[in-house]
Design a protein that fits this description.
Elements lengths: L2 E5 L4 H12 L3 E6 L10 E5 L7 H8 L3 E4 L10 H20 L4 E7 L26 H19 L4 E7 L1 E3 L6 H6 L4 E4 L5 E2 L1 E3 H13 L4 E5 L5 E2 H8 L3 E4 L1 H14 L23 H5 L9 H19 L1 H6 L3 H35 L1
Parallel strand pairs: 1-2, 1-4, 2-3, 4-5, 5-6, 6-11, 7-10, 8-13
Antiparallel strand pairs: 9-12
Length: about 350
C-alpha cells in the first residue's frame, strides 16, 4: 500500500483509520463532503462527493492503489438523497476505482444484511441470503450496496474487494443502532422473545480494517466477538433496564407513531425483528482465513460500554444522580427489573406452549 484514499474521512471510522494510517507513514488522501475545519496531520484532504465524475481522475493523479470506503450514512428514514448518497455513491466509487485501476478496496458492512427471521439457522455464513425486511433505511441500503458489489465482483477479476460484515459495534463514540438502543432510559423488549446478539468492540473493528488494508483478503467476512449474548443478559451487562412490550402492540405502535412523527423511531433504535429473532453470524472464516480474533470478548465489550454510559449519565443527568445515590442501589434495582422481565418471558412462553397443546388435543 503506497497511497490510501479514505472516503468519509470525518465519519468516526474514517477519522480513526486516517490517523492510524498517517502514523504508519502511509500517504493518505482524505475525501469528504464536509469542509476541513481543523488541521488533519498526515492527510491530504479533498472536499468532494464520491459521486463526483472526476473522482477517477483524482485517483489517477494521486496514484491511489487502496481505497477504504467509510462514506456510509446510518439513516433511520428513507430519503432519495440518502439513498443516492449511500447506494449510488458506492456504485460511482466502484466505477472510479475500475477506471483508475485501483488495486484494492475495503468496504465495512454489517450483519444487519442477513435479516432476522423466525427460521434463521443457528449460524449465518457469508453465503446466506439477505432475507430480512428492510424496515430501516440503513438495512435496505446496506443490502443494495452489497448486491452491487457482488455483481461487480463477478464482472471483473483484477481488483481485490474486501467486505467486512461487522456485528453490532460498541465504543469509540460510534452511534451504532445497538449503542442508541442501550442508551435509552429503558430498552424496549418484545414479551416472549429473547434473541442472541453479537457485538464487536470498536478497537477490534479498527484492527481488522488495518489488517485488511495491509494484507490482501478478497471476499466477504463476518466479524464478531464471542460469545453471542441473550438479550436480557446483554441489557444486564450494560445496566440498561428492559421494558417488555407485547409484540403486536410494538409493531402497530411504531407504525402509527411514524405516521404522526418521525421522532417516534428513536424509541426503537433497533428494528423490532432484530429484537425478536436470532441473527448470529458464523465467524469461522474470520478465524481461519483472516487469522483474526477480537481481543475483547462480548461480555467485556458490553460491560465497558455500560461503564462509559453510566459515567456519562452520572455527569450530565441531574435526575440520574438524584434517583441513584449509589451505584450499588441502581444495580440492585436493575437486577430486580431483569428478574421480573425474565419471569414475564417464561410465563408468556408457557402460556403459548399450553395454548398450542390445547389446539392439538382439540
Amino acid at each position: 500500500m503506497k497511497t490510501l484514499a479514505i472516503t468519509g474521512l470525518f465519519n468516526p471510522m474514517g477519522r480513526h483509520m486516517g490517523r492510524l494510517a498517517a502514523s504508519m507513514s502511509v500517504r493518505v488522501l482524505g475525501i469528504d463532503v464536509k469542509p476541513l475545519t481543523r488541521p488533519f496531520p498526515g492527510v491530504k484532504f479533498i472536499q468532494t462527493d464520491v459521486r463526483n465524475p472526476l473522482l477517477a481522475d483524482l485517483f489517477k493523479t494521486e496514484k491511489v492503489d487502496t481505497v477504504l470506503h467509510c462514506a456510509f450514512r446510518w439513516r433511520l428514514h428513507s430519503s432519495d438523497e440518502g439513498f443516492d448518497s449511500n447506494v449510488l455513491g458506492a456504485l460511482r466509487l466502484l466505477e472510479a476505482c475500475e477506471t483508475a485501476r485501483v488495486r484494492k478496496i475495503v468496504v465495512p458492512s454489517s450483519t444487519f444484511v442477513y435479516g432476522a427471521v423466525a427460521d434463521n439457522p443457528a449460524f449465518l455464513c457469508e453465503e446466506s441470503a439477505f432475507r430480512g425486511q428492510p424496515t430501516y433505511a440503513y438495512v435496505r441500503e446496506l443490502r443494495e450496496i452489497e448486491t452491487l458489489i457482488n455483481g461487480y465482483r463477478r464482472q471483473q477479476n483484477g481488483m481485490i474487494i474486501t467486505v467486512l460484515r461487522f456485528a453490532n459495534l460498541l465504543g469509540g463514540g460510534l452511534r451504532s443502532p445497538l449503542a442508541r438502543y442501550l442508551a435509552l432510559p429503558a430498552a424496549p423488549t418484545l414479551l416472549g422473545f429473547e434473541p442472541r446478539l453479537q457485538v464487536l468492540h470498536y478497537t477490534d473493528a479498527l484492527r481488522v480494517l488495518g489488517q485488511c488494508l495491509l494484507q490482501d483478503h478478497d471476499g466477504v467476512f463476518n466479524i464478531a466477538a464471542d460469545p453471542p449474548l441473550p438479550l436480557y443478559q446483554l441489557l444486564a451487562l450494560a445496566r440498561t433496564p428492559p421494558l417488555p412490550i407485547v409484540h403486536p402492540l410494538a409493531y402497530r405502535g411504531l407504525a402509527m407513531g411514524r405516521v404522526l412523527s418521525q421522532r417516534s423511531a428513536a424509541l426503537a433504535a433497533m428494528p423490532w425483528d432484530y429484537l425478536r429473532y436470532t441473527w448470529v453470524a458464523d465467524t469461522g472464516r474470520m478465524q481461519d482465513e483472516l487469522d483474526f480474533r477480537p481481543t475483547h470478548d462480548a461480555r467485556q465489550t458490553v460491560r465497558e460500554f455500560g461503564e462509559s454510559l453510566w459515567a456519562y449519565r452520572r455527569q450530565h443527568s441531574k435526575l440520574f444522580g438524584t434517583l441513584a445515590a449509589t451505584r450499588d442501589d441502581l444495580s440492585q434495582v436493575h437486577g430486580t427489573c431483569c428478574r421480573i422481565s425474565r419471569r414475564l418471558v417464561q410465563a408468556a412462553s408457557g402460556l403459548s406452549g399450553r395454548h398450542r397443546s390445547q389446539e392439538v388435543n382439540a
